[in-house]
Design a protein that fits this description.
Layout (H helix, E strand, L loop, with lengths): L1 H14 L10 H11 L4 H9 L6 H13 L3 H17 L3 H11 L4 H13 L2 H9 L23 H10 L28 H7 L1 H7 L5
Length: 211
């Protein structure tokens, strides 16, 4: 099930709409536009932040219970807003910060890192987006603790359970003309001297050379 959810999410991001889907009628397009705009940001972040438990399983269970109380369209709006924040944070400068803090970050690792960063709440998320080196102020010492893969699947799984539909049919965030083929910005270079200059606080905290 989880692999199905993940595959559906990736296809939707790549295609903009579920791959293979026919063009929707005007009424359906209007509904899709309402959903892809996402849940109101304040409501979205309130749902993310109200379950600030240190235990991940407890946090996932609480979020799952909260989403299960929502109507399917609101679950889609929650996921669309989550997708939007994932898209906003798909940036090379943030990837470089994750690379230093985690001792490396693959494509999947960076995806799970961004999910973790969203789970830290709005203030932390926006602060790190504004200054990736400030990740040093909130990052745990354990690199594995900076990945939160399972939160990516909660809303699609709940929506699928409530509707009986495949996660591939879930309406997701559509960046429209802003879609990109890769991360925003300039790729970071895996060069110690450059990384130490770009991320001085992270470098001092997480590398043996900076200690």
């Amino acid at each position: 099930m989880r692999n199905h959810v993940r595959a559906a999410a990736m296809l939707t991001i790549l295609c903009g709409t579920p791959c293979g889907a026919s063009e929707a009628p005007a009424a359906d397009q209007k509904e899709r536009a309402m959903v892809t705009n996402g849940m109101d940001e304040a409501r979205f972040w309130a749902l993310i932040e109200q379950f600030g438990r240190p235990d991940r399983e407890a946090r996932l269970a609480a979020l799952r219970a909260a989403l299960a109380d929502l109507e399917p369209d609101d679950i889609q709006r929650f996921q669309a807003q989550f997708d939007r924040q994932m898209w906003r944070s798909y940036r090379w400068d943030l990837w470089g910060a994750a690379f230093v803090a985690m001792g490396g970050a693959s494509d999947d690792g960076f995806e799970y890192f961004r999910a973790w960063l969203i789970a830290q709440g709005r203030d932390a998320f926006e602060r790190v987006l504004g200054s990736p080196d400030s990740l040093a102020d909130i990052a745990p010492n354990d690199a594995d603790a900076m990945e939160f893969e399972h939160i990516l699947y909660v809303a699609p799984e709940i929506w699928s359970e409530k509707t009986g539909k495949s996660p591939a049919e879930m309406i997701r965030f559509d960046p429209g003309s802003e879609v990109q083929s890769g991360p925003q910005g300039t790729p970071f270079r895996e060069d110690d001297a450059l990384l130490a200059r770009q991320y001085p606080h992270l470098w001092r905290r997480f590398t043996s050379a900076g200690m």
